[in-house]
Amino acid sequence: MSTTLELDDQGTRTTGGPQVHPITDTIGADITGLDLENLTPRDIRFFRQAVLDHCVVRLRGYSIDDDKQVELGRYIGALTGSSVRRDKEFDWSKKYPELVVISNIKENGETIGVLENGELNWHTDLAFDEVPPSLSLLRALEVPESGGNTGFANMYKALESLPPRLRQRITGLRLKHQRSHDAQGRPRVGFEHLSADDVSALPGPVHPLVRTHPDSGREALYLGRRFGGYIMGLDVAESEELLDELWHYGTLPENTWHQEWQVGDMMVWDNRSTMHRRDNFPAEQRRRMHRIVVLGSKPY
Ligand SMILES: [Fe+2]
To answer: Whose CA is closest to 99, among 90, 108, 107?
Structure first.
């Protein structure tokens, strides 16, 4: 779905109500003036269109709690969760079972969330699911003094950046997104017995390398995770070589931007047109994020 916005030369909405302010020419925009207490269908259309246009939007300076975050997610679509099992079971929110806490904070010797404090490689959320999420909504409750920034890459631009021979080469090719190992190469719960030596044998769904965004109609490079990726029908060595080349173009610095978090920020990104990553941060500093994801559709 789409709606026509009245924009000036800078891309700022000129009529009343919410406004969108691009952060870079490539990716990211702030949305100001959204009345979260009285959201209208027009506001939701505006919000969705801003995410489509800028791939990532930031809500800064608003007062957002779990209720508001979930409400906004549900206005956009059905909330969903990860299909992979975690190291341990958490009971974060009885009210919202779809809410995930991403944190390194320890209470009574136990971490209260997932993903700790290390660097997280470029990835797209839950690409290893048959039906990956459309949007992710991530909100900062505590941020470290240094590090922990989140980078975003525009995958429309990544596709446009490919040399013509490479663009031609991947036409029609499909990528297996293994689900047995995380982006750092560690086996997930239940897959400890699986060796990743032969990536062609790892379990996971197969999605097209170039996907068409169901709402924008635009084509984007869809890489998921580098670790364990395998391009169907190729020798593993050939697949590795081609993936290395695609990942080079998929993460060109000129197509990326890094968000420096402030407490209260909520980032909403489109997993169909972006990848993201996280810088590491000092283990002794606290970082706490709440994330929900909105159900998408099978990539085509
Ligand atoms: Fe992620």
So the answer is: 90
CB burial of residue 63 (10 Å; 0-12, 13-18, 19+): exposed
CATH number of the domain residue 264 falls in:
3.60.130.10
Distance between CA 279 and CA 284 in Å, rounded?
15
Q: What is the pLDDT of residue 93?
A: 85
Structure confidence by residue, pLDDT tens digits, 72-111: 999 999 999 877 777 677 888 889 989 999 999 999 988 8
User: What is the total count of domains within the chain?
Assistant: 2
Q: How far apart are CA 200 and CA 223, in angstroms?
A: 16
Q: Reduce the DSSP state of residue 80 to 3 states and report it.
A: strand
Whole-number Å distance, alpha carbon 293 to ligand 1 midpoint, is: 10
Domain that holds residue 81: 19-118+133-151+258-295
**What is the residue type of 41?**
P
Give the number of other CB atoms < 10 A from CB of residue 161: 17
Contact residues for 50 (Cβ-Cβ < 8 A; gap 6+): 20, 29, 31, 57
Question: How many C-alpha atoms does 280 have within 13 Å on its Cβ side?
Answer: 7
Compute the distance from residue 119 Cα to the ligand 1 centre, in Å: 11
Regarding pTM above 0.90, the answer is yes
Q: How many angstroms is it from 278 CA to the middle of ligand 1?
A: 8
